[in-house]
Amino acid sequence: MDKVEFGKRLRAWFRRHGRDLPWRRTHDPYAILVSEMMLQQTTVAAVMPYFGRWMQRFPSVRELAVAEESEILALWQGLGYYRRARHLHAAAKRVVSGTGFSWSYDGLRALPGVGDYTANAVRAFAFDEPVPVLDANVIRVVARLFALRAPVDSAKGLSAVRSKLEGILPERGGREFLSALMELGALVCRAGRPDCLLCPVKKFCAAKSPEKLPIKAPKVPMKARTEHVAWVGGRKTVLLQQSETRRWTGLWRLPPLEVEPLPGPAATLTYSIVRERVTLKVHRVTRRLVAATGEPRRAFPLEELTRIAIPTPHRRAIAKMLREEHIQGS
Fold first, then answer.
1. Are 33 and 129 in a shared domain?
2. Are residues 255 and 287 in the same domain?
3. Is the pLDDT at 8 greater than 50, yes or no?
4. CA dist., res. 165 & res. 142, Å (int)
5. Contact yes or no for 42/135 (Cβ under 8 A)
6. What residues does 75 pair with on adjacent strands?
7. Rounded CA gap, 157 and 292, in Å?
8. pTM here?
9. Catalytic residue set
C-alpha cells in the first residue's frame, strides 16, 4: 500500500465530510480524556449533551478534582457504567496532586481507568502523535483494508490489526489521520454492509466481502436474572436506598425486598448490562418488608429526584410507578 497516497485521500475526504464534534475543536488533554472516558461503551449521539454539560460545570481538571462525588454522579446519570465517572474524579485528583504527573503515555496509564487505548487517544488527539488508537471503528476499517482473518476480539487478531495500523500511520499528524480513520468507520465502512461506493480509499482495500469482516469469536449467551425491589412511595415522597453494589456504588435506588415477593401484580421492566438481561420487578409494599441491609435509606420529596444520582433502570421504574399512581388517583 502507498501509505502517503492513502493518507492524502483519507484526509481530503475527512475535511469535506467529517462531523463537527465538540472534542475535535480542542487540544486540551483534560477535555479529550473526558470525551474518551464518556465514549467507552457509549455512542457519540448519547455522549454529546453529557460532554457539553460536563465541560460547562467542570471546565478544568482542577474544578473536577475538588467537586463532590454526589454531584459528579448526578451529572453522569444516564450514561451508565458509573465507575468511569469515579475514575475521572480520581484521575483529576491525581493530576492536580503535585506528584509530578505528566501527560505522557506512562503518566496517563498510571491514572485510574486509563488503559492503552485511552492513553494513546489522548496522545494522538491532544498532542498530534501518530500512535495506534484502536477503537471499534478503526479495528473494523483496518481488518477490512487488509482482509484480516483472525478474530479481532482475540489477542492474535488485535495484534495483527495493531501491526497493520502502525504500518500506515503517518510520520506526523496523528490527530487528523486517526480522526479520519475513525470517521470512515462511523460513516462509510460501517458494521454490516459498508457503503463501498462512497469510500475514498476503496482502491487500497483487500476485502472481497467486506460485510463479512471483521471476524469475531462467537458471542457468550446473555444470562437472565430477576431483581425484586420495593415501592414505598406516594404523591409526595419516594423511599430510596443507597447502593453498595460494585456497579452502582453511591447511587440511590429502589430498596430490595426482605421477603419473597408477595402474590399479586408487579410493575416490570427490563434492562441489559454486560452479558446479562435483567428483569426488574417492582412490588408495592410497606416499609417493614424492605430489606434491613444497613445501607443509608431516605424518603426523598418528588422534586428532589431530579437532583440526585439514580441508576437509569430504577429512575425508569420510579417514573412508571408515579404514572400509575397518578392515573389511579385521577
1. yes
2. yes
3. yes
4. 7
5. no
6. none
7. 49
8. 0.81
9. 36
